[in-house]
Write a structure and sequence with these properties.
The chain is α/β, with parallel strands linked by helices. 43% of the residues lie in helices and 18% in strands. Helix 3 packs parallel to helix 4.
Length: 284
């Protein structure tokens, strides 16, 4: 009897520990290959490898619906949908299908995940803030009506170039459903490696999503290949990021960036998942 009770306690503790670990999802750029030509095949691979869900992109609404339905059928989740917002002619503009996509995502807790570009303003230029803030507030209202949040995606060489830019803009928007993303690869490419813990600290009050990947330490701005590797490769200690995320109390989803990694997707993703399972102990 005592043995059975002890086993139950251990099992419950294991379930609780897993539940406390941040959900781990894969970018859709890791689900591409000759055998992954359908949405179903991509979702099947993500499920087989063990991801909690995926990131998607601005796509035809009927394809987004197919993806959302497919996630639900597999007990997975689409955590974010990537899109572009552009500061243009005094307005924040985006593809018209984004509004339909937001409506399709109602009730899913999917986040809209925008990079922000501009030909009018230089990277990181706060002169564009008023345009961005006005447009983001309108988009935030639309998202809020559908129960969604916006996590601004800092991307090197775009107007929101750094996580600091995303934080600055999100603070000015001042809406509960507008926050930011921390991207490891973009921080490394920006040569901000030494400041990563401080950047996470700065972003923490507004942090909705984080992304990680394997990478080398000492990456320069011209070395994207070294900045994006599978999670089981590279000399950079990703544990630095995970320990800091835990320290600031981040409970949100963490994505696996896979941009331009060459090789068999299943092999690559399995290697990353094995590394994640070891690293995720840092988040418990």
């Amino acid at each position: 009897m005592r043995t059975a009770i002890l086993a139950s306690i251990i099992a419950l503790a294991a379930v609780t520990a897993r539940a406390e670990t941040n959900p781990f999802f894969v970018f859709d750029n890791g689900l591409r290959g000759t055998n992954l030509t359908t949405i179903a095949s991509q979702l099947d691979l993500a499920k087989e490898v063990g991801f909690a869900g995926i990131a998607w992109r601005t796509d035809a609404p009927e394809r987004v619906k197919e993806m959302l339905d497919g996630c639900k059928q597999r007990g997975m989740k689409c955590f974010v949908i990537y899109c572009n917002l552009e500061l243009k002619d005094g307005k924040l503009v985006y593809k018209p299908e984004l509004k339909e996509i937001i409506a399709l995502c109602k009730g899913t807790d999917t986040m809209i995940w925008p990079n922000m570009t501009s030909k009018q303003f230089k990277n990181s230029d706060p002169a564009g803030d008023d345009i961005a803030v006005a447009g983001l507030r309108e988009l935030a209202d639309l998202c809020d009506a559908n129960g969604l949040r916006i996590a601004i995606y800092p991307h090197v060489n775009m107007w929101v170039h750094r996580v600091e830019d995303a934080v600055r803009v999100a603070k000015k928007v001042n809406r509960k459903n507008v926050g930011v993303t921390f991207n490891l690869c973009h921080a490394l490419i920006d040569e901000a490696e030494s400041r990563i813990p401080a950047l996470i600290e700065e972003a923490a009050p507004l942090l909705f999503v984080a992304s990680i990947n394997g990478a080398d330490s000492g990456v320069t701005k011209k070395e994207m290949g070294r900045a994006i590797q599978t999670l089981d490769k590279g000399t950079y200690g990703v544990g630095i990021v995970l320990r800091k995320l835990k320290a600031v109390g981040f409970k949100g989803p963490i994505g696996l960036q896979c941009y331009n990694i060459k090789g068999d997707p299943k092999t690559l993703l399995t290697g990353s998942m094995n590394a994640w399972r070891k690293m995720s102990d840092l988040l418990k």
